[in-house]
Structure formats: structure tokens, C-alpha cells
Amino acid sequence: MTENEKDPRCRPGPGRLLLGAVSGVLAGCAALAVAEAVAGGVRPQAGPVVAVGGAAIDRTPAAVKDWAIRNFGTDDKLVLRLGILAILALFALSLGIGGLWFRRTAAAGVLLFGAVGALAATGRPDSAGATDALPSVVGAVAGAVLLYVLTGRLAPRTEPHAPPAVPSGGDWDRRGFVIAASTAAVASTGAALLGRSLTGAGGRDAVASRRNVVLPAPASPAPAVPKGAAPRIPGLSPFLTPNADFYRVDTALVVPRVDATTWKLRIHGAGVTRPVTLSYADLLRRDLVERDITLTCVSNEVGGPYVGNARWIGVRLADLLAECGVKPPSKGGPADQLVARSVDGMTIGSPVEDVMDGRDALLALGMNGEPLPFAHGFPVRMVVAGLYGFVSACKWIKDIELTTFAAHDLYWVERGWARRAPIKTQSRIDTPKPFARPRAGTVMVAGVAWAQRRGIDKVEVRVDDGPWQEARLAAEDTADTWRQWTLPWQATKGGHTLTVRATDRTGAVQTGKRTRTIPDGADGWHSVVVTVD
Known about the structure:
It contains 11 helices and 18 strands. The protein is of the alpha+beta class. Helix 5 packs antiparallel against helix 6 (103-122) and helix 7 packs antiparallel against helix 8 (174-211). It is globular, with a radius of gyration of 29 Å.
């Protein structure tokens, strides 16, 4: 501590402490704004908040991720970003106040923040190299310089003719601080707007490419949804889930915006005798198929929302693989795992046998009659009927490698999830909702059940501890789509528990034993508690 700081007249009062905190926040905002502006010129994923957030996701234990999805749903990424910003704000406040005593140390603290961001950015699976460090480094330098300047304006000024260690009664450069702080605020706002503009400009080509896509009529169209497959019951999920309502569970803090005109897909690896690189136009020129397929996320709790049914259009993956010389293990092929890589660095492994066993396994280009939305994988994603998404549904796909399970443990497997994960037989009550208060009399109980690749044979509902009552099944579209069901219940006054279970076409009855989602999907019966008035 300097002699000036020992003098009680120079100890910062509440006003200067507050301005010190403001200095820290301004420096933090400037660092982030400049970093985002630079990221706009490099790539959005290199920004410090996105890079640190991505690194946090990669290092979060599976159980914690599962908890976040369960409690925050599709807002988990927003919660993470807000959490990072809150931590940075507290860090900046501390540095600003500390800078009143230790200017250089506080400025070095900002540089430390930049180093963390740079390491996170260059350490990501999708890193473009050293250039990804630039946003964090440049932003940190800008923030450190600003903090040093602002805390300098708050330092006590000495008398003009006094020795340097003699203070002037705690006076400080008010005018200089106001000018510097105001200039910093304006400049930071400008940098933030520039960053947003550059980021938007970088995605315009992708947006234009999607807007210009005209999906050809499929050579193999999906049959019309059978009459009676979608009963009109208030509260019951629609048979086809609208794109805007379709669940999204992935690790991307920034949704990739890929230009379809420059997109490429490489297929290579063990057993590939004819490697190929395909463009989006190449896929559009092929015979397309259209299929209704229900997707399910392995993070879906019993009765959860992470399941949706859509009409997909795309290219048969098995046909492409066969053209490349690939054979499934059952026919002597050396590869038993298909590794799909996304532009955001995600890796997903699927069993080659499943992809080539005749089921609908697609490189999907369209969803519910339009090109894939960006959030759901535009320009191309994988869709494999009967497998949970974490072992099949690679979005923003760019590379397919044929290999073995022994050679590669991929992203989710490294975090404790199963290598193979067929979708389990499940059912859900959509209406009445938990804790609803219906009136006594006839109450329509309705929901959905799914057992992709096997199909639903029966759904039963139990009221309290009474006997199981068979529900009425809606018409089936295909075995790969969910099936809706209804049961008119003669409700009596009081509290009641409604429970549902399904039986698939193999005769297997959905188990009532509750299990966690990890490692291969949840088990158990879905129940809701209601009070009948």
C-alpha cells in the first residue's frame, strides 16, 4: 500500500467506491463489446461468452446437464449465458473497486479474463485455430486499458509543488473521469452494434441460400395421414408437431448458419471403397423420400416434452453408403459405427447395422414441407427412425466417417451415455394437465404413446389404484410415429391420480420401474394428479 493510500483522507469513500465499481463494469462491457465486434469478423463462435459457455458445457457432468435440461428445458443455454454474464459482472465489479488501490493488478485481471476466453476458443472441437483467440485477446486489452485509465482518474491528485507522496486531501479528476467514462460507454455501444452487424452479415448468405431452396417433389412421398389418426381433443398434442414447437436439445450456444451453396459432405473411412464429397445441389438431384418419423431425445424424462413428430424429406442414407461400397457388419463390412460430425464440432455415433437394415435413415433436407429450419440442422441433418437423437440425429452435418465402436468413444459416450440406444416404449398424458381441476362428470383423458420400429398395440389408463382400462387408440400412421389415444373418464369429486402405460407390438409392456435418463433413456409410467370439483 502506498503512503497516499495510508492517509485516511485518501481512502475512497462510498462515492469513489461506487465509481470504482462503475469503472469495472464499463471495462467489462468494453471488453465484451470489442471482443464481439472482432468475433463478427472472425466467426461468432469465437466470441468469449460463447467459447467459455461451450467449454463449460463440454466439461459439465452428464447428471448436471440432465438436471439443467429437466429444469430449464430449451432455455438451458440462455440460463448458461446469463450465468456467465453475471459472473463476469461480479468479477468486473471486484476489479473496478480493487483498481482504486492496485491499478496494474486490476488491469492484469482483465487480461487474465482474456486469456481464459482465448484458451476456451482455441480448445473447442470446432476451433479454426489461433485466429479464434483474437476476439478475447483484443477485447481484454481494450478492457484493461480502459480500467487503468478510469481508475487513474479516480486516484487522488497531489499538490503541484508537494512531494509525490503527499496527497491533496483526496481530490480526484472528476471531469476527466466523466469524459473517459462517457467516451467508453459510447465506444462500447458502437462496438457492440458493429459486432451485431458483422455477425448478421456473416449469416446473410446462409439465410439467402435457405430462402432460395426449392425442395423437389419426393420420388417416394409419404402416404396421407390416415383419417382418425389425429383426434381433435383440447390439450392433446397435434399429430404433426409444428417446426416452431419442435423440441431442440443440443450443445450449440450459437445456432450455426451454414450457406447451402458452399456446404459439403464428405463420406469416408473403413470399408468405403469409393469416398465421395457431396454438395447440397448433389443431394437435391437425387431421388428424395418423404417420411413421417417421431424423434425422441434421450434426455426426455417420463412424461417429458422432448419428443416430436414431423414429416421429413431427404435422401436414403443407406443408398449413399452402398454407393460408396459400405457393407453392414452382418454382410462382412469392417465398420460397425458411423461417426457423424457437425460444423459445430459435435460428434455422434450410430450403429452401421441399424442405418443399413432397411429402416428409414435419412439425410434430411426438409421438415414439414419446408427446408430445415436453422435451429433444426439446415442445410442437412440425420434422421434415423427408432434411435434416440444422441446416437443418430446429427444436425448441421458435414462429415461421415465409417469406423468401429472400439476405435472411437464419441462426445456423449465419453460423458457416460450408452453407445447404442434404441428408443424405449413410452406413453404420456397430455390432458388433463397436472394439478388441473376438471368438473365432475365425463373428462376426456388423452395423450400420445410411441415405440418406434415396433409400433403401439395398446394403451391403458389407471385411476388411483383401480384396474387398468384400455384406451381407444387413434389410427396408426406408421410404426415409426407416435400414436394418439383417448379415454373418457367418469370423474368423481376429490383428488385422483391418473397413470398411463403402453404395450408395443412385440407384446412388451411399458415398465413401471422409474429409471433416470442416463445412460440410455428413462423408464417408468407417467402419472398426473388432478382435483375434481
